[in-house]
Amino acid sequence: MILEPDFDRITFETFKDEHIPQIVRFWNDCFSGMRNFFPVSSRDVRDRIVRKGNAVEKFDPSRFFIARDEDLVVGIAHAALRSEEVMRAIYPDWESGSQGYLAIFGVLPQFRKIGVGGKLLQLALATLDGAKEIVLDGQCINPWYGNSEAPFTPFFGTPEGVSIPADDAESLAFLARRGFRPRYDAVALELDMTNYKGNPQLAVQGLTDKDYKIVHCANHCPMIGGTVADWKIFRPGFFFDTICALENDVVVGTITGYQMIDLDPSKYAIYEFEVDPEHHGKGYGRALLTMFLSFMKDQKGARVIETLTIPEVSGPAFELYKKFGFVPAQTWAIF
Fold first, then answer.
1. Residue 265 belongs to what domain range?
2. What is the pLDDT of residue 145?
């Protein structure tokens, strides 16, 4: 017999290893309708959340809260803290203090609107007391639910990480009542590669600079302004491809993509696409995208390519993608 949701029956506690199987069941029930979702296992939770960490950020079980109705996990909230040192490394103009963030948050639909979500959020945010600011993090720098370390498939959401659909009015209203409001709407664009017939030779011929090279590098993310000598493997164990534009052996543009292997081996995502502002208007963006798409189709067998854009911030990139046949697939709220 399934009992009606009752807040008085809910218990709230911090993470323990014994909760993992229950968290897996919750995750696969709560987020199964999200774009790019794939079912997770206990190993996924252990390897990608519990055991994940680095010199400056590691999983803290005291900041991961679960709500349970007997043996059923009905909600989770995971908070984390970035030190002043980390913030200055990410944002050079960061002045001082730490940043707290909500890394993941969810409640089963049938247990919403009875106080479970509010209590979980209250408990999680209380662990961030003293932070200069508290944000929601649905972008790539989220170390547990994004792809901050290297391009690889997030648990669900955008090619960068978990996020909230812009049409999820219930969740957005819940967060707005607690002071969280999106900064932008980001658009996931998708290209069906079946009929893609880009011509790399014509794209390269259109470049206005003569002293250039367009090269492929595997498992590297060259930095704009760097040189070939600066290239290093991003991190062993991850597999991705970058098409790079060089002018006088200096990097002036890159586009990086990866296989969303956990979701669909024939689906690829664009992780990063950047051209040095001083080289805008010279044809590098069009050439890089053409070369990248042709490589993915011919060498990787890609069937679908997905990317994430913020039209308000990167209008030219958004328009370029549309010219290549990308179509909107989902709009996301970026906090």
1. 190-334
2. 92
